[in-house]
Amino acid sequence: MRTRRIIGNYGENLACEYLKNNNYLILDRNFYFHHREIDIIAKDLYANEITFVEVKTRSNSKFGSPVDSVDNNKIRHLLSACRYYLYKNHLLNSFVRIDVIEVFINGKDYEINHIKQVI
Q1: Would you state the pLDDT for residue 34?
Q2: Which residues of 23-47 are buried (b: 16+ CB within 10 A; e: fewer)?
Q3: Which domain holds residue 27?
Q4: Where are the beta strands (DSSP E) in the chain?
Q5: Domain of residue 81, CATH code
């Protein structure tokens, strides 16, 4: 369990760096609402959209593609947390989208796959 958390945190840090380098402003990380979490909340400065990012990090492909783990239940939880974040921060009239960033780690090498607007 601890190893999974370390790998997950590492993947989130890599995803944040990737976003910063691609014209995003990080607004929040690990936002919790009723046992639901949004990994990264960023503003896409190019598209002027609030972007909720689910980060999935894998060090092997035993369990399939990382994006495959974003099932209907996870989507429902994400939507609930996103709505609350928008309400709480007075952003209800903002353009928004939900993205998934897959981080594949192989030793010290990594690869990032950014999938925009998964919902």
Answers
A1: 83
A2: ebeebebebeeeebebbbbbbbeee
A3: 2-115
A4: 24-33, 36-44, 49-58, 96-106, 109-115
A5: 3.40.1350.10
Tokens of 85: 């974040």
CA distances (Å), 22 to each of 13, 46, 97, in order? 14, 9, 16
* Residue 70 structure tokens: 């974003």
**Is 111 exposed, middle or buried (CB count within 10 Å of its CB: 0-12, 13-18, 19+)?**
exposed
Residue 66: the pLDDT is 65
Do residues 70 and 118 lie in contact, with contact meaning Cβ atoms separated by under 8 Å? yes
Whole-angstrom distance, CA of residue 80 vs CA of residue 77:
5
Across the chain, which has 119 residues, the per-10-residue mean pLDDT values are 74 96 96 88 96 88 68 83 94 92 89 90
Distance CA 59, CA 62 (A): 9
